[in-house]
Amino acid sequence: MYLEHYGLTEPPFSITPDPRFVFLSERHRDALAHLLFGIGQGGGGGFVQLTGEVGTGKTTLCRLLLEQIPDTTRVALVLNPRVTPVELLETICEELHLDLDGMRGSIKALVDALNAYLLEAYAQGLRVVLIIDEAQNLSVDALEQVRLLTNLETPTQKLLQIVLLAQPELRTILARDELRQLAQRITARYHLTPLDAAETGEYLRHRFRVAGGQHFPFNAAAVRRIHAHSGGVPRLINNIAERSLLAGYAHDASVIDARWVDRAAAEVLPGRTATWWPPRAMVTVPLAVAAIALLALALTLWWPRAPALSPATASTPAAPVVAKPAKPTAQPTMDATAAVARLDAAKIAPAVAWGQLLERWQLPSTANDVAAAATCPSVLAAGVYCLRGRTTLDALIAQDRPALLRLRHGDSETWALLEGADVRQARLRLGNDSVAVDRIALQQLWDGEHAALWRAPAFLAETPRLGSQGAATDWVRARLQPRYLTAQTGAVTFDVAMQEAVRQFQRDRGLDSDGLVGPATLLALAATSSDGPRLTAPEGGN
Q1: DSSP-derived secondary structure letter, 327
Q2: Is the pLDDT of residue 334 over 80?
Q3: pTM of the entire predicted model
Q4: Hey, what domains does the chain have and what are their CATH numbers?
C-alpha cells in the first residue's frame, strides 16, 4: 500500500542489513580500508580496532569486510563475546572447524590445538584472522586471553591477526592500567562517526533509489530535521524515515515535510512523547476495517516481489535516447594485487579509451576526432563539452555518466572507461575487456583524475554568474526546479536565492559547494537530462 503510493518495490529503510542498500560515506570507506589494510599486513601481529556509536554501521562494515577478504584468508568470527576465556577459545576453535574432542574446558589444550592449526595454515600460505564483534563486552580476563593469542608466532611472523569491532566504551576499557599491554599492541585505530547533514541526504536518496523510487519524497527541510533528530546515525535515520513515509501515506501526502518528520521522531525515538495522529477519517474507521487494512499492508510488505532495481537502473529513464551498451559477462572482482597486475600488463594507449568515450556519446571517433578530444577543450564541438579534473567515485556515480579514469601504478599508466559502479566495485573498460575492480583496490590506482563529456546548448559556453540574465541563467534555473527552487516564469536573474540553490545542488552531487556554476556543476546539471549514455550496474564480483 504505502510502497505503491511512493512508487517503491520494497521498503527502503528497513534496519535489516542488506548489502544492496549499503551507503558508504567517506568515513565508512576509510574505515573499511583500515580493516582491509590491517588484515593485509598479516604478520604484523598487532590489533586492528574499529569503534563507533550504536547504529553507525560497524556490523555492516564487517559484512563487507568478509565479502572482500582474499580466498587465502581463514576467518574466525565471534559475535557473542560475553563469555569466559575458555569459552572464547572454544568458540574460536569451532569457527576454524577444529576437532575439540577431549579438549573442552582446558585452556592449554585449546591453545595448543590452535597453535598447531596456525602453524599448518602458515606452512600452506594461508592467513588467519580473528574478528570479534561487540568487543566492548569482553571481560578483562577474556581480553587478556585474546592478547596472549598474539604470542603465537614463528621467529619472523605473528600467526594470528585480530580485529576488534566495538562501541566507544572499549576505548575506556583499554585505558585501564591492567590492559596497557593490549592497548600498546593496537597498531591501527579508527573511530566511525555518524553522517553529516549532507551525507544524511545522500543516504536517504540512495536507499530510496535502490528500493525503486523515482521521486524522492522528503523536502530539504525534512532531510535537515531527520539529521537533527537522528544525529546522523544510520539506524535512527532508517527508523525516522520509515515512520515518516507511513505518516505521509496515511495522510495521502506525496511530499514529506518537517512536520511529519518531527511527529515520526517523537514516536520512534526513546524518551519522546508521541505527537503523531492519524487523520480524522481513519479514527472513525471500524476496527474490522482497520484490521483488514493492516493485513493488506503486511501482505504488501512480505509478499514475494520482483527483484529490486539497482541504483543505476532506478535512475535511468524508461526510454533513454541513447541505448546502453550490452552488460558484460560476470567476472570475479579484482583485488588490489590483481588490479595492479592487470594495469601493468594493459599498456593501453589513451586514444583507445577516448575513442570508446566518443562512441558512448555517438560522436565521430576517427583518429583526428580522438586526437582533438584527448586535449579535452572546454568546448569540443557545438553543444558538446569536455571536462577534465579531479573528483571522487561517488561524485561520478551521482552524474550517472561514463567517464575516463586515469590509472597509475609505478611507471605504468593508462586510461580506463568507467562503465558502472556500486558500493563495492567499479566496472572498467580496459581496451576490449570489461573488468570488475574492488573500490578499495581502485583507490590505490586512481587519484581522482578523470575526463568526461556532456551535451548542453551552445550558449552555455558563457557560464552564468551572480547578477547575470539570459538563456544560460534560464537553463540553470530550469534544472534546479522544483527541488531546489520554486517554479518561476518570465525574466530570471541569478540572485542570491539561486546561488544558494546551486550550493545545495552541489552538496547533493558531491561537488565543491561554492555556488559557482563552473564546468563540473554544468555537467551535473546536464546529467539530469535523459539524453546520453548512462552507467550500468556492475554484474558478477564477489
Answers
A1: P
A2: no
A3: 0.51
A4: 2-20+200-302 (1.10.8), 26-192 (3.40.50.300), 336-455 (3.90.70.10), 464-517 (no CATH)
